[in-house]
Amino acid sequence: MKNSLKAGDIVELVKVAYLSLKSSEEEINELNVFPVPDGDTGTNLRLTMEKVVEEIQRAPTRMDEISKAIIYGALRGARGNSGVILSQILRGFFDEASQKEELFSDDIISSLKRAKEVAYQAVRKPVEGTMLTVIKDTYRGVKDLKKKETPLIEVLEKALSSAKNSLRRTPEYLPILKEAGVVDAGGFGLVVILEGITGFLRGEGLRKEELVRDFVRTPILVEESSKFQYCTEFLMRGGKINRDEIEEELEALGDSIVVAGDERQVRIHVHTNEPDKALACGLRRGEITEVKINNMWEEIEKRASLDEKPKLLAVATGEGIKDIFKSLGVEIVVNGGQSMNPSSSEILEALKQLKSKKAIVLPNNKNVILTCEQAQKLSDKEVYIVPTATIPQGISAAVAFREGEIGEVTEEMKEAASEVKSGEVTRAVRDANLGKEKIKKGDFLALVDGEIISTGKNVLSVFKKTLEKMVSEEDSVITVFYNDELRKEEMEKVKKWVENKFPHCELEIKWGGQPLYPLIFSIE
Amino acid sequence: MEKVGLVTDSTCDLPLSYYKENDVLMVPLVVRFGDEIFKDWMDIKPDEFYQRLAEASELPKTSQPTVADFINAYNALKNQGFTHIISLHLSSKLSGTVGSAEAARGEVDIPVEVVDTKMISGGVALILRSLIEMRRNGSSFQEMVKKAYELSEKISTLGYLSTLKYLELGGRIGKAQALVGTLLDIKPLLTLEDGVVAPYKRVRGAKKVIPEIIRSFQSKVKDAKKVKIALSSAGDIEEAKRLRSELEKLNLPLEFVFSQIQIGSVIGTYTGPGALLFFWYVES
């Protein structure tokens, strides 16, 4: 086993690093959710390394020249945020290494230190939970090894295991990773490089399967309850700040340590049970400001409780119509409508199930509004009712729903509901006289906003007559929901007819599956 | 004597002649159709891009400039005698361009301020235009930097995309994810929230889009003394013309700084054809 790396070894290891990245490119891409979830971290890292390989092939084999070529290649090839950070890691490492003829254990450690420093300096706002954290922890893992005596391979093995531990913890820092249940893609890239290099020196090669199993295929679960209670953060100013020294002191107090900045000012972050001691660590060295101490256990509890963002609840029948409401962001649809009004306790129960402290309710039927108002009084949630009297009004209101101040949003929803003409075609339940017209039981009649517009024996001709009377020049959208009494092909014909008749309108026809009404429609 | 150099990237979506006339150095991003690589605006103009996009079997990919591209750009300005540089770029939440520029600034020995404008297209163009004017009037580097950050906070955006497909497949949909998958044909209005794409409002029917934009705009610029505007379109500029003529009817003190910006290949990869982006700020 080697106890130093010579220029020729470096050339070989760079190629190994490149090939390791290349073989894991797809897996790295898969993990990419931060900062831009475009699934190209692996590609970017590979492209960055590709240029490095290209450069060193032209360079003579002396450590300083190889180092220069690596730095130049990385800067030229750096693609994507992760590529840029990789280029800075390489720059730091080989800046340091270029001064040696061969790299012994202690040189590797000091080069890793420089790599970490340069990487942090190049990014204006370092984000923890990324490649930066992994390179930092990699260095931290080896910095206490007996520099000269530790065999080279042991230094690398320790660096690799520290990098893996750090990678596993990236979702603790970055909520977006936690949500997606993944580790940081760029950080994984670094682990792949280290694994490749270490494996090669061991004479084994890249253990890709194992890496993929541990970090890509296994969903990453974050231990919610940290053993440390207080997240402590502050800014410290002073002269000649020694960051390493502060880090060491904080390590005795807790974990998730970040000490970022320069000699005059550092931002300090630690999870600890002794925030007083953490602050004292700063106070002993200078003045502190922007102190923030959060009780994380309390926050975890809060997070498990209810959301502040309002959620939508609607009352409707018909599978198609319910699905449409859900696709518009309605959280719960309570079954109910004409002649099957839900009880206020059903509404109340649904309100209870909503995962939010605030609710906006769409009754979608004249007779349900009152029931909802009763539930509103009984509920311990903040409930707003947009008094929609028809399904089309409800849909317009749901479309107008957005994030924002709830009072303002409900006003906009009311306005949207008031701008739509709602219609339905149904059957007469008994004979009746309507002005000059006689309606027989079983005839179809079309109502728009509660008023009978036309009647007849055929459902579709009644519908067409109604549109002819009701669609004006200002209208631009006609929406129709049909049920199982009508066939899709019949509706296709209606579609053609409407498009010819009202070319200024957009038309949408959907299966609503509602009972009682063959057609529900809106004109707006 | 201070001499401020201006650098931007191709996503301001201004034609090459604009940079030449105003002494701005533009560093292009890159768009890739399979193995074919094009420098945004340099090798591929919007018309050709939308043509290719319509015919392409696979969506194009985009890449930020490399660190070396920026080092070269900054050094070129330094060699021309510039003493300071302001480098204006599209939102860091949408692209790593700011990251490349940040890494490059350490390699140059004159002060370089890399500004994350949190904007795209016409939004970046408005800031660039303002800095060009300031430089002409002899403003200092510090004043210009301050203005750049001020505007990046101030500019409002409303956007209409004829489809969210490109934004979603390109991984830039951000908070507008909530708008995907509705069963009715919904026209979403989008905005940029701290540099991330976010939903603003939903409307039904293409005809309601412009009235809704006007309504939202009006409610936000009441009593303004001067409003500066940029309009960007992907492909068809008819909608932008219509929006402009509706805006002109409002009887507000509007200045159309740019009203016919064509969205180029990189931004167009995510908006798709038919997009309309409206940027404005109230001049104080």
List the helices and strands and how they pair.
The complex is a heterodimer of chains A (524) and B (284).
Chain A: E1 5-6, H1 7-23, H2 25-31, H3 41-58, H4 63-77, H5 80-97, E2 102-103, H6 105-122, H7 131-142, H8 152-168, H9 170-173, H10 175-180, H11 185-202, H12 208-217, E3 230-237, H13 243-251, E4 254-261, E5 265-272, H14 275-283, E6 287-295, H15 296-304, E7 311-316, H16 319-327, E8 330-335, H17 344-353, E9 358-362, H18 366-378, E10 382-385, H19 391-400, H20 406-418, E11 421-427, E12 432-434, E13 437-439, E14 444-448, E15 451-456, H21 459-470, E16 477-482, H22 488-501, E17 506-511, E18 519-523
Parallel strand pairs in A: 7-8, 7-9, 9-10, 16-17
Antiparallel strand pairs in A: 1-2, 3-5, 3-6, 4-5, 11-14, 11-18, 12-13, 14-15, 16-18
Helix pairs in contact in A: 1-3, 1-11, 2-3, 2-11, 3-4, 3-5, 4-5, 5-6, 6-7, 7-8, 7-11, 8-11, 17-18, 19-20
Chain B: E1 4-9, H1 16-21, E2 24-27, E3 30-33, E4 36-39, H2 46-55, E5 61-63, H3 67-79, E6 84-89, H4 97-105, E7 112-116, H5 121-136, H6 141-154, E8 156-160, H7 165-169, E9 187-193, E10 196-203, H8 209-220, E11 227-233, H9 238-248, E12 254-262, H10 265-271, E13 276-282
Parallel strand pairs in B: 1-2, 1-6, 6-7, 11-12
Antiparallel strand pairs in B: 3-4, 3-5, 8-9, 8-13, 9-10, 11-13
Helix pairs in contact in B: 3-4, 5-6
What value does the Rg of chain B take, in angstroms?
18 Å
Structural class of chain A: alpha+beta
Which chain pair shows the most residues in contact? A-B, 42 and 40 residues
CATH topology (level 3) name of the largest domain in chain B: Rossmann fold
Based on Cα principal axes, name the global outline of chain B: globular
User: Widest sheet of chain A: strand order?
Assistant: 15-14-11-18-16-17
CATH architecture of the largest domain in chain A: Alpha Horseshoe
Mind describing the biggest β-sheet of chain A?
6 strands, mixed
Distance between the termini of chain B: 29 Å
List the quaternary state of the chains: heterodimer
Helix content of chain B: 25-40%
Report Rg of chain A. Answer: 33 Å
| Helical run tally of chain A | 22
What percent strand of chain B? Answer: 25-35%
User: How confident overall, as mean pLDDT of chain B?
Assistant: 94
Instruction: Kindly give the count of domains of chain A.
Output: 4
Shape of chain A: elongated
The average pLDDT of chain A is 89
CATH class category of the largest domain in chain B: Alpha Beta
